[in-house]
Amino acid sequence: MSERSRTELTARVAELTRALEQERAAWQAGERSPYAALDSDHQQLARRLHDTLSQSLNAARIYARVIRSAAERSCPEASESSATLEQVARHAAEELQTLLRWLRPARLDGAALVARLTELAELASRAVPCEVRGPAEVHAEPEMEAELLRIAQLALHGLVGRSGATSIELELERDEQGLLLTARASGGGVMPNEWKTALEGRARSFGGIFATEHAPEGLTLSCRLPATVSGISRTMREVADVTPSR
Predict the structure, then answer these.
(1) Is a pLDDT exceeding 50 seen at residue 27?
(2) Nearest CA to 212 among 145, 178, 163, 149?
(3) 227 DSSP 8-state letter
(4) Where are the alpha helices (DSSP H) in the chain?
(5) What values do phi and psi take at 31, rounded to 5?
(6) Are 157 and 102 in contact (CB under 8 A)?
(7) pLDDT of residue 183
(8) CB neighbours (10 Å) of residue 8?
(9) Are strands 167-175 and 130-133 parallel, antiparallel or unpaired?
(10) What mean pLDDT comes out for the span 218-225?
C-alpha cells in the first residue's frame, strides 16, 4: 500500500470513528440507534395490521359463531359452513399474530439476552424445531445485547420463512472479541440475497461481522458484535492495521 493510500485510509477510519463516537454519545444520552427509524417503521406497520386486519378476523369469527348457533337447528348445512368459516378465520388470526411477533422489533425490556433468544426460538419452533445452546447467562453492554437480539430475530425469520430449514440451532458465546451468535439450519441452504445484505449491513454498522456458510448438511449464519459500544470505534480503528500492504 502506498503512503498516500494509507494516509487516505487512516483519514477515512478517523472519520468513521468520530461518527461512531457520536452514535455512542447519542445512545448514552438516550437517543435512538442508527436503525431505530427502520425498527420504528416495522413497529408501526405491526400496529396497523393489528388494529385493522386482526380485529377484522376476530369480528369474522364472532359473526360465524353467531350464524352457526342460529342455524344449528333450522339449517344444518349453513351451520356447518359457518363452523368452517370460523375455523378458517381462527387459523388466519393465529398466523397473523405469529407474523406480528416477527415484525415487531424484539426488545430486552430488562430481561436477559439468553431468555429473549429462547423466546425467539420458541416462536420459530411453531414452524421449525429450534433450540438455544450455550451458557445460561451471557452479558454485554445493553446496547450491544439489544442489537444482537434484533439481528437474531431477523436472521431467524429468514431461516424459518425462506431457507427450507428442517431444524435450527442457536448458540451464543462471549469471548475476548465480544459476542458471537451462530445459527445452524439443517436441511436448508438458501438465504435470500436481500436478507443477507441487510443483515451484513446492520452488523457492520455496529462494528461487527455477519457471515454465511453453505454446506451439504445445511446453512450456518454467524454474527459477531463487540461487547461494548466503545468496541465499535475500536474495531474501526483496527481496519487500517489489518489492511494488507502491497
Answers:
(1) no
(2) 163
(3) S
(4) 3-28, 36-49, 55-71, 76-103, 113-124, 142-162, 193-205, 230-237, 239-242
(5) -85, 180
(6) yes
(7) 92
(8) 12
(9) parallel
(10) 92
CA 185 vs CA 182, 190, 216, 217: distances in Å: 10, 10, 11, 8
**DSSP states of 102-123:** HHSPP--TTS-HHHHHHHHHHH
Between 244 and 59, name the one with better pLDDT: 59
Distance CA 188, CA 168 (A): 9
Distance in angstroms (rounded) separating the CA atoms of residues 171 and 169: 7
**Please, what is the Cα angle at 16 between 10 and 18, to 5 degrees?**
105
20 within 8 A of 207, measured Cβ to Cβ:
yes
C-alpha cell at 121: 426460538
| Degrees, nearest 5: CA angle 38-212-235 | 65
Name the average pLDDT for the chain. Answer: 77
Is the dihedral angle over the CA atoms 43, 164, 131, 150 positive or is it negative?
Answer: negative
**Burial group, residue 185, by CB count within 10 angstroms (0-12, 13-18, 19+):** buried
Enter the pTM of the model. 0.65
